[in-house]
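Example 3.2
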Amino acid sequence: MRDLLLCIPFIFLQGNFKKEQLQHKRVQNAYELKYNGVKNNLQKHNLNPKTYSLYIRVFKYDGIVELWGKDATSTTYKLFREYNICMSSGELGPKRKQGDYQVPEGYYHIDRFNPNSNFHLSLGINYPNTSDKILGHKNKLGGDIFIHGDCVTIGCVPLTDNEIRSFYVYCVEAINNGQSSISVTIFPAKMKGENSRFLNKLTKNSDTNNLWTDLQKGYTYFNTHKKLPNISFLENGRHHISTP
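Structure, written as C-alpha cells:
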C-alpha cells in the first residue's frame, strides 16, 4: 500500500535514532502511551531494554505477527510479544506483480520508518528483495509494503493504530540500541503439523512450492535453534539457507 508521507531511511547513528524519531508528534504520543508497557514486558521476559535486538515473523494464514528478542550477551532469541493482523488481502503465496493485492512472502528486513504515515505509523519492508526481482514481473513488481496502523490493506500488514504504537516503539528502541537491521520473515502460515500438510496440497505452482520449501527450512532451523540462519539468494531466485 502506498505510504506517501515522510519516511526516515535506514541510515542512522546509534543513540541518535530515537532522538530524531521523538521529534515527530505521533512517535511522542506512542512513547507516552506505550513505553512503560514496552519496558515492563521486556523485563518480564528477561530482556534488557537497553541492549535487546529484534526479529519479526509474520504468519499470513494465522493472522499473527511475532516479536522475538535477544540480548547482546545471548545467542538465542525468545518470543516476547504477539500481534493480531487486523485485515488481510490476496491469497497464500508470494507477491509477483504490482496491483495483485498480495502480501509478500520471503526473507526481508525493515528498511524505513515512517513517523508521519497515512496509516498512523509504519515500517517499510524491503520488497522486492533479490528473489522477487528474479521471479516477479519485470518492471511491474510494485513496492511500498509496510507494517502499519489502521485496519485497511491492499497488500500490507495492518495492526491498528493502537497496536502499531507499541510495535513501533519496540523497533525504534532496538535500532537505538545499535541493531543495524531488523530481519522480517513473512510465511504463508506456521509451517508445522496440519499447516504443512495443508500447504503441500494447496498449490501445484513450482515457483510457490520452491519458495515454501525454502521458507520451511528457515522456519525449522529457527524453531529448533532459536537462531537466525544465514540467507543468501541464488541466481534462479531460490534461497541458500546455512548455519551461522
